[in-house]
Amino acid sequence: MPPRISLVVPAHNEASYLPALLDSVDVARRGYARGAGAVEVIVADNASTDRTAELAAARGCRVARVENRAIAAARNGGAAVARGEVLAFTDADGRIHPRTFDVINAAISDPRAVGGATGMTMERWSAGIATTFAVGLLLIWATGMDSGVVFCRRTDFEAIGGYDERRLVAEDVAFLAALKRLGRRDGRKLVRPRGAKTVASTRKFDQFGDWHFLTRMPPVALRLLRDPAARPEFLDRYWYRPQR
What we know:
The protein is an alpha/beta fold. The protein has one domain (5-121, 145-198): Spore Coat Polysaccharide Biosynthesis Protein SpsA, Chain A (Alpha-Beta Complex), CATH 3.90.550.10. It contains eleven helices and nine strands. A seven-stranded mixed beta sheet has the order 3-2-1-4-7-5-8, sandwiched between helices. Strands 6-9 form a two-stranded parallel ribbon.
């Protein structure tokens, strides 16, 4: 029997963080009402040079090697080998909730849902992180697009063409926006089910400072608005040449 849910994990040199995520995935799979076998885990190894692929294979994950160094390409590469009727995506440095798969299954079983996200909380808090989180909540409220574990039906993923590989950043936002537009055509909507928030890593805050998102990202965003083809050095260092 094919799995009900395929969980895709894009990963570039994530050998240090992946074990904690996979531990949380194992717990959630064992607790899933349909059984652990109804969930497959795919690590989309995005040109890693460390032991990411080896570690993932040893933990029983399917490994999809993706050479195009782009997060969107990694997500699509994992989805390309997935067998589940429901596709889910999460980052390699977080930890998912024990009820994740039951919550996703219940949400996507509603024909009025085109997809959605489970939401997230942070692994640590400070004034800067809390303020950044609050700003994010305002954007979520305004758009209806959340983060955490993102999910949709395979058929809808294919209908919108997956993630836009031309985007080096914000590909997840564009993906949910495309799902939202698709759902409008037949009266479906994005959903934000409760009870399964992902614990998100704060490693970017650890590296760049707890206020960096509010102080350093706005100038980068303005530059990209003026020149969408630009690839600011900070943006490149933030997502594609991180310290590991």
